[in-house]
Amino acid sequence: MANNSGRSMSIVAEQERLIARDACRERDRLLTLILPALTLVAILLLLPLGWLTWQSFVGDSGLTLEHYVRVFEDSTYSKSFLLTFEISAMVTGLAILLGYPLSYMLCQLPPRWAAFGLALVIVPFWTSLLVRTYAWMVLLQRRGLINKTLIDLGVIDQPLAFVHNITGTTIGMLHIMLPFMVLPLYATMRAIDPELMRAAANLGGNPRYAFWRVFFPLSRPGLLAGTTLVFVICLGFYVTPELLGGGRVVMVSMLVQRNVELYFQWGAASSVAVILLIIVFAAFAFLNRFLAVERVFGAR
Amino acid sequence: MAQEALNETLVSRQQRLWLWVVGTLVLLFLILPVLIVIPMSFSDSRFLTFPPPSLSLRWYEAYLGSPEWMDATRVSLTAAICTTLLATPLGVAAAYGLRVAEAKFLRTIQLILLMPLMVPIIIIAIGVFFVFAKMNLVGTMLGLVLAHTLMATPFVVVTTLAGLRGFDMNQENVARSLGSPRFAAFIKVTLPQIKPSVISGALFAFITSLDEVVIALFISGGENSTLTKRMFNALRDEIDPTIAAISSLLIIVSLSIVLAASLLAGRKTR
Prior knowledge:
Chain A is an all-alpha fold. Chain A is built from 13 helices and two strands, in the order H-E-E-H-H-H-H-H-H-H-H-H-H-H-H.
């Protein structure tokens, strides 16, 4: 009897071992499905990032910090970093100022109108950034529609210079970045239960109080996601500032591009790239404390 | 008391009016610059004024009659189609693996797969340029497609994951318990039900490749220059009205793709 139960115990153990082994094999097979995509990212993204980091420490005579010292001491570099921060902060601030009321309005609309309004945000979002930059070049040029309208209205006598400067760059970037603010904000606001606002009103809170104490705090994750996305993408923005800035607005991305394409200075380019990368990852790590980063991109 | 309540609604109504004005203006700011390019492309004038002084198709003729623009268009379309064909299976497989496999490090893997969306595009571009220079892939179609697949796959992963989240895996498990191998069960049971998500992912992969500029600036060249690279270089010199015609066509492509994707999304929820 004792012997018998001992044997059945060992059979159970054996079966459990087999099941565990199968589960393991099954998992490995499933993981190989991820492998092709992962390999692509590893070869075309992780590998060069590692190489860039390495390059940023290598000079003519072995290991060196000269590339980083240059970024902080050469005024071309420090000015460019400062300008990039200024423009990114300005665009992000304006995107909040314009994006928050728009998302709030879309939330209040009946579903059919909200879908229409959202379409007006999504269509520019999926329109080529080059096309949108081109549109702004045409609109903002000396004889463009904006200057013409302002002159016809008698606001100005002489056409204003909107292109080849920071103004044009900021307007163009704002237009391109705004959907990145509105889409996460709208998604977060839509999920807020409208009954909460009604409850706040019933309990005697005036609309302003209810908004700031109930609605706004609940919309904060979306605001945070939008703000991070807009700021981070602005930091590395290349096409729009290059075209609307006309070569006069030198953002960090252009330092990287020029060092690689014109001067073949990988060391100089890589230190700038590494600093940019650290800032970007720090921003996402900060965001991750409040909201899982993958959710910002729609994945869970 | 009643007076107070009335005042409250008055205040909020006034505020609401402001909200509508601001919101509508912001919507116009978003959409008008995109749409205004289309009437401008039919202008007869070298200077892109609005409204156009007289209508003509001369910029479309200039575009269609130019071998350079036609070559660039062919390159861009080929790259976009190949990227879609490559990124879609890659992204779907990865999403399925992420959803079904149970492992602790899956979140890390997912974040790595989403990295092309996080790293500044200029850094990705010089990185890819470096790797391709070593592998002699600069200026080749294969290189262009691989780089664009890197950028497009995350979109397929994200949309497919969304589709799989709304799908009851038990259905596939039933098929498997009845003796169907996992792959067959996936193709016959799961895939038809997540098809709308997969197709939107594919559409976004297509448009990602078609519209991509920065990487193409670095790695495409010679006879394999993309449409966007040629447009960018042309815009650096002057505002060529031919680009208005090309832009209008690109806007139509984006519009159709967004429309198709939203129709698919509508069908999915039904």
